Amino acid sequence: MYTDRISKYPAILIFAVLIILSLGVAWSMATLGMSAAPLILLGIVGILMLVLIIKDYRVGFYLVFLMGIFMFYIDRMLNISFPLGTVYDGLTALVFIALFIDNKRRRDWTLFQNPITITFGIIVCYQLLQFFNPNSGSHVAWLVSLRGNASFLIYVVCFQLFSSLKEVKNFTAVWLVVAAVVGLYAFYQEIFGLTDFEWEWMNSKPERIDLYLIWGVMRKFSFLSDPSSFGIFMAASALACLPLALGPFPLLKRLGFGLLMIMLMVAMSYSGTRTAIAMIVVGIVFFMIITLWKKEILIGSIAIAILGAGMLFGPFYGGTMNRIRSTFNASEDPSMAVRDVKRVSLQEYIATHPIGGGLYTVGHNGERYAPGHPLAGPWDTDSGYLLIALESGWIGLIIFQMFFFLTMWTGIKGYFSTDDPVLKTYMLVYITPFLALSVAHFTQDSMFMKPVNMLVYVTYALVIKIPSFQKKLSPVELV
Q1: What's 219's DSSP letter?
Q2: Are 421 and 248 in contact (CB under 8 A)?
Q3: Using an 8 Å Cβ cutoff, are 394 and 386 in contact?
């Protein structure tokens, strides 16, 4: 028999190859142990994914997004020492390469004709010039830091991928479905507790228990790396649901988005991350201001404000509620006091080093890649802006802040430049969490932690792309 549609080779040859492969797997398991089976399976899956990505770079883009969410859970479950972060960066580079191999789709070269790309390019060039920073003392640290420039590759991919509103809707749907799954697993951890391998991971570092156990309540982290990244991801996803719940969609969809938003906010509260709570407040205030001319928005905003006041001042107690309330009483919070002292103590270094101490020379990264550097040591900056200022100097900090401001400015201008309610809604879906993340970056390295970093890169592209979409949508697209 011959299978003309699949192959020119006889079926018996295909069966022979499969039998040989099966025997090879069995022999590997017998000689190398049971660990050989999952490694071989991963190899086969990897080859399959490679073929799919080369054929359609969009597959790789979604794989990068999903890997940024589930890679930490896989690492905890399998307890492997393999650097999955390196695989993540390699996959990002592969998607970028596949973008130019895929000749079926037209590319948009207006990419290089907008201020977002120009400013992003300036940031990349500035980081490359850090090679000559005399304060770094380690070219190894600079070389390792180059992996951070994968963000520009993803931005280019996003600019090409989001060629229509349909693509934006598809990614938004994947994002919110995955966020719901992540949130539901946090509910599982809250109700049934952590699994055995999660407890084993928790106990592998004694300081981890001290950090995660607050007021007698274990902070939840779901599939993500830690409670902070989980809480921030939940907050950003909840804020994305807000415009959709009040957008120009059928009532049933709006109710669904509203319920999802509430569920994500409850899951967020299990993380005990006060930065995420502040994000919700900042995002809602921004949304209220930019859409205050709508009656239904005003009514909804009042309802949300009443709900928030009830949580802050109502007769509700416990570790989670105490953590939420402490967000708005930062002046009396010991951890915030420690962060303030740290920031003030480092201001002199920032003022006297305009180009910074060099990339990857601060804290734990410095301890590993630039030992002996004045900024290296077993400590964390906490603040993303502080980290930028220490590594890249106040010049680098100004460039980054200009870039974030330009992104928001472009998004707000794009929001008011279109009269289409659907385009307005999807613009708010992305710039509302972006603004909240840019504020949260003051107390956490929130904008570049996985998987929120992908949402940030997508926003860079969409503030340019969304206003360029067709102004009049069909009735089908409105739902």
Answers
A1: P
A2: yes
A3: no
